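Local shape tokens:
==================
===
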Amino acid sequence: MRYKLLLPLIGLGSLALLSACQNLTPPAGVKPVTPFNVEKYQGKWYEVARLENRFEKGLTHVTATYRLQDDGTVTVINRGFNPQKGQWSESIGKARFTGSHDRAALKVSFFGPFYASYNVIALDDDYQTALVCGPDRSYLWILSRQPHLTAKSRQTLLAKAKQAGFAIDQLLWTDQE
């Protein structure tokens, strides 16, 4: 398997770096999860759906792996397969909390000093499914510890996303087969 660094494969762990790097807050009216436990959140997540963005365009089998570091930062490894090129892409970044560590509001960078907003806005009690957004309503991801959601989890997350004002009819369901 060949890995190629895609600069940047932003997807799950970040957002539009250049256009949104200065806005490190969630969209108006959207609240990050509190309380939040980053130790439970770390590990591998599958991207189940996303609002399409230029950083992940055409990618399938997208995952994000989060690893808590001793200094309190979180290493982010985003990975996806480009079927047109027949190769995997991987990008490694670093996330930091924007405030209290029990609030799921972070900023993430994949290069240089540029950071983007990363907000977990819905999370089940067992840390098995999550809804993540960026600084505005054009960035949204549905994540799961499994490649697919149950019908109940899907319905719950879609309802939360719709209630928060996201265009759920524009979600792209990520191929994980």
